Amino acid sequence: MDPETHSSTLKPAQGAYNTRMLSGYGSAASSIRAGYSLPGSGAMTPRTPGIPIHEDGEHTALLGEEERGLNEVEEGERRPRKGSTDLPPSWRRNSAWAKVRYYVPSTAWIPAYSFSLFAGDFLAGITVASMLIPQSVSYASSLAKLSPVTGLFSAAIPGIVYALLGTSRQLNVAPEAALSLLVGQVVDEILHSDPHTHPIDPNAISLAISTIITFQVGLISFLLGLFRLGFLDVVLSRALLRGFVTAVAVVIMIEQLIPMFGLTHLEHVVQPKSTLDKLFFLIENAFTHAHRLTAAISFGALAVLVGVRSFKRVCRRYWFIYRLPEVFLVVVASTFLSDKFDWDQDGVEILGSVPINTGSSFVQFPLRKMTLRYLRRTTSTAVLISVVGFLDSIVAAKQNAGRFGYSISPNRELVALGAGNIVGAFVPGTLPAYGSITRSKLNGDLGGRTQMASLVCSTLVLLATFFLLPWLYYLPKAVLASIICLIVFSLLGELPHDAMFYWRMKAWIDLALMTLTFVLTIIWNVEIGIAVSVVISLLLVVRRSSRPRMTILGRIPGTERWKPIDENPEAEEDASGVLIVRIRENLDFANTAQLKERLRRLELYGHDKHHPADEPHRHDANVLVFHLADVDTIDASAVQIFCELVETYKNRGVGLYITHLKTGPRRSFEKAGVVGLLGEEAFCKDVASAMTRVEQAVRER
């Protein structure tokens, strides 16, 4: 007999400490001492005693007793009867408030915010803002082909909304290089769709395109979260994302090398279209037509950025060095030198005057005649941005959640990210904004323990938008390209590690998927590369899920226990003509379609590798025993196929027995007529009982 496993339940510790302080932001030792009366102090980790743990092994959110009660209700631990009226009014009020705190986390952590955390949050916010301001200007002007102002608004508004609704405490939401590039490609394609005409107001068209893309991105993300589709990060392969990010990094680098060499004007004349065309354009003109001063400034700035960043890695233990905002310092220094030595007079392109111009008014409804004109042409790009942006964000959120010992909700993350982009779309031209792995990690390293750091960062970006831009008049555009190239190095930095990991694991399918995504993105375009790879990734998921996991059981000699013969060499099939099969997952329409074929292969070939043309290794079974202890649910399509399977074996004269059948599947079998077809004697408590009946039937013959 194969005994059923019983999982022990971890009960929450009944500690006499106050869980209403700090609203779950207890990562810092000082905050724990301020809000808890635990014996001893120190940073809380997933193994720290005294932290309440749910049955799934995760920490409670530490957002007060109301939120813990809500989580228990969601997990089915304390679900009151529907329509119950014996609950006191105060309980119902507390439950309603707990739900508000659950879906709007800021209503929990802001009222109970501990100012002992503010120093770390403020420092993190200032440092991330000093890096984000020049980055956002670069993304908007160089990648998205928009005004620098749109990048700054994108770095501020969605971040504020996410800080109020998001579940991650360190995630920083702002424009991303890859997503900005996608927007820029659509803008460029639409503006130059008709080579015989020139748009009357290209700036207005660009703002309309960016606005409708951002609104669609926000709406798609919001709806994905609303319908609880946050499992997308599990469905799509990490190798696919790595191949896409690597390809985009190469595309961005080729795009930015053109202004770094001072070839922008020549590019407008030649007009290379694809990434390969631009690569050949660079090879032909980089050393013959380059603007020497521009190239010296851009590559000099890049060398300083790379050098300072490498120096910071070496000196991580010195906080005053590690927290140096090298990007901001390079921007300030290059702007000062450009003004001092009149580089613009020598042919170096500068940022110039940047008016805060978003159209007829600062805030506009995103769905209007001008934007709806480009709705259909931008939907595919919006879907792509939504998927890629969410994958990048959820990886960053999960990394920080694991690092600081709390849990996140992918569905609520989607809702928060979607809401941020929807609100951002009300400011014309705002770019799609998602979480960044690099900025979020830096946020945590610098002491950010709550979303207060994001609020500080967004406030500083808004102040820079209205007051700092005039001071950047002489900023060389080549320096902005250098900043983006620095980001490219970060994107490419993880490729060797991932590629070596897949090689070491002999994950050839993952390597092939990563390579395919990279090649298609480079040769064709970003959309084709990611679309084809997503389809292949989904097909692989469907293929794997459509093959039911089954194994043959054998008896352990001298016992009444049966174990899988492919995992236990001592297990033996000691009954001639009897095949005992354990189905090791729930049955549904997807994995049951191949059940007949898989059973027939087990019957003829066992677990040995074989070709369909090979001669059978085993004899046909006279008795088939199903072990269904792992089958908790079975849908209507699966029951129908199982019923057809039973009829097929009965027509062949094969004896059938079903063991370890649970209540839910048995009820489905009764409704479908499987119980009537086999008879009650075919349903046994365990394999031992079934084998006893088999032996009895043999003796009666």
Task: Provide key terms for this protein.
single chain; 701 residues; mainly alpha; 6-stranded mixed sheet; elongated
Task: Reconstruct the topology from this structure.
Elements: H1 29-35, H2 65-74, H3 89-103, H4 106-109, H5 118-143, H6 148-165, E1 173-175, H7 177-191, H8 202-226, H9 232-235, H10 238-260, H11 264-270, H12 275-285, H13 292-314, H14 319-322, H15 326-341, H16 369-372, H17 375-404, H18 410-424, E2 433-435, H19 437-445, H20 452-467, H21 477-493, H22 495-504, H23 508-523, H24 526-545, E3 550-555, E4 562-564, E5 578-583, H25 589-592, H26 595-605, E6 623-627, H27 636-651, E7 655-659, H28 663-672, H29 674-678, E8 683-684, H30 687-700
Parallel strand pairs: 5-6, 6-7, 7-8
Antiparallel strand pairs: 1-2, 3-4, 3-5
What does this structure look like?
The chain is mainly alpha-helical and 701 residues long. 58% of the residues lie in helices and 5% in strands. The chain is built from 30 helices and eight strands. The chain has helices at residues 29-35, 65-74, 89-103, 106-109, 118-143, 148-165, 177-191, 202-226, 232-235, 238-260, 264-270, 275-285, 292-314, 319-322, 326-341, 369-372, 375-404, 410-424, 437-445, 452-467, 477-493, 495-504, 508-523, 526-545, 589-592, 595-605, 636-651, 663-672, 674-678, 687-700; strands at residues 173-175, 433-435, 550-555, 562-564, 578-583, 623-627, 655-659, 683-684.
- Rg: 31 Å
Proportion of strand residues:
under 5%
Distance between the termini: 26 Å
On the 0 to 100 scale, the average pLDDT is: 83
Helix content: 55-70%
Number of strands: 8
Structural class: mainly alpha
Describe the main β-sheet briefly.
Answer: 6 strands, mixed
Taking pLDDT < 50 over at least 5 consecutive residues as the criterion, the unreliable ranges are 1-85
Tertiary shape? elongated
Task: Please list the strands of the largest sheet in the order they lie side by side.
Answer: 4-3-5-6-7-8
How many alpha or pi helices?
30
